[in-house]
Amino acid sequence: MMQPEEEKELVKTIVKVSRYTIYITLIAVACMAITIVSLFNNGSGTTASPKANEGAATTSVTAPSSPLAAAGTTPRAIPADAWKAPDESTIPAGKAGDMIRYGKELLVHTSQYFGPQGSVAHITNGMNCQNCHLAGGTKLFGNDYAGFIASYPKMSGRSGKVEPASERIAECFERSLAGKVPDTSKKEIQSILAYMKWIGKDVKKGQKLFGSATEKLAFMDGAADPIKGKAVFTMKCQSCHGNNGEGMLAADKKSYTNPPLWGKHSYNDGAGMYRLTNLAGFVKNNMPFGATYESPQLTDEEAWNVAAFINTQPRPHKDQHNDWKDLKKKPIDFPFGPYADAFSEKQHKLGPFKPIKDAQKELTVKKS
Fold first, then answer.
1. Among the four residues 92, 164, 329, 354, which has the most C-beta atoms within 10 Å?
2. Which are the contacts of 73, defined by CB distance < 8 A and separation ≥ 6?
3. Which pLDDT tens digit goes with each residue over 256-292?
């Protein structure tokens, strides 16, 4: 017969074993439940192979950052024979090469030399030529310089006279950089010309180039909408260009990492970017950051609307009363009258542009 102390120890042992048994049973039940649920989920709907599930997981992670999925745009291809910038290793040695390199430096870091704190002169707004002529003027549909030199000298519809390339560069200082005209005989402008000549050394006069200037987007049926454009700006542009389009200053405070889109340091209303067809085509192929012709991140409508929003914001004004004396040659999106047609300044600025284009064609036919 067991002693009382032995009975107590036996009871304790039985209790412990019972507890462990309960714990193990509960864990086993939980594991079985999880297994059953997993099998049920995998078996429901369509059956997918491990690779298919792996792909689905990848899609769910990457889809939010995929610009094509987000914007509903279509990938496009650049023709195999499209113009490509010459390799910089082909820049000649000696003084000629030094001028070419200096010319590129001036275009890429214009504000360092001509900005408010420039080392050569203080005559521009702090933007760089490269802000509008991307990758040193070598990016397709990014206002490249491929055919620039080959097209000059030429008659300017704006000024009504034959201009050399140097004068066109000077106009950019006055309009896109909202500054003063530089001395075109000096080393700086001559170096810029040397770089542009090297960039377009294989381009012939009159040669049609894929990707030159900016893409001409199909006209919308109605006018571009600045209100809708503001929503696009807030979602797609504000993080780089600032809440008020003021841009992002570089650490040295002399230039911009991301340029201002309006305000006193942005391009003035005489610049090419102030024309909506130019800005919309530029935005479509280059913005937001990372967008290209092959993989745009905005629909055409979004590009038109955000361009309308940007160009309805305040910016420096340039007197242009002497521009486009021949009204029949005035661009359809030039936002300042008078015009050869009966359309308003507002329609010339925001569209719809097709009726203006059609009227312009009729005027041309009558003239001929």
1. 329
2. 67, 295, 296, 297, 298, 299
3. 999 999 999 999 999 999 999 999 999 999 999 999 9
Residue 132 amino acid letter? C
Residue-range definition of the domain harbouring residue 306: 226-367
Long-range contacts of 335-343 (CB under 8 A, 24+ apart): 335/269, 335/274, 335/275, 336/269
pTM above 0.85, yes or no: no
Q: What is the DSSP letter of 248?
A: E
Question: CB-based contacts of 147: which residues, under 8 Å, 6+ apart?
Answer: 200, 203, 207, 209, 212
Residue 233 tokens, joined: 């700006």
Q: Which of 199, 218, 235 is the last residue of a domain?
A: 199
What whole-number distance in Å separates Cα of residue 329 and Cα of residue 348?
A: 14
End-of-domain residue from the set 164, 199, 234: 199
Q: Count the Cβ atoms, other than its own, within 10 Å of residue 110.
A: 27
CA angle, 142 as apex, 136 and 144 as ends, to 5°?
55
- Tell me the CATH number at 125: 1.10.760.10
In DSSP terms, 248 is beta-bridged to 258
| Interacting residues of 270 by C-beta distance below 8 A, sequence separation 6+ | 174, 175, 318, 320, 323
Q: Are both 195 and 230 inside the same structural domain? A: no
Half-sphere exposure of 333 toward its Cβ, with a 13 Å CA cutoff?
Answer: 24
| CB distance 268 to 314 below 8 Å | no
Closest CA to 100 of 113, 87, 116: 87
* Domain annotation covers residue 84: no
* Residue 317 belongs to a domain: yes
* Helices assigned H by DSSP within 138-248: 165-174, 187-199, 226-232, 238-241
Determine how many CB atoms are found less than 10 A away from the CB of residue 240. Answer: 15
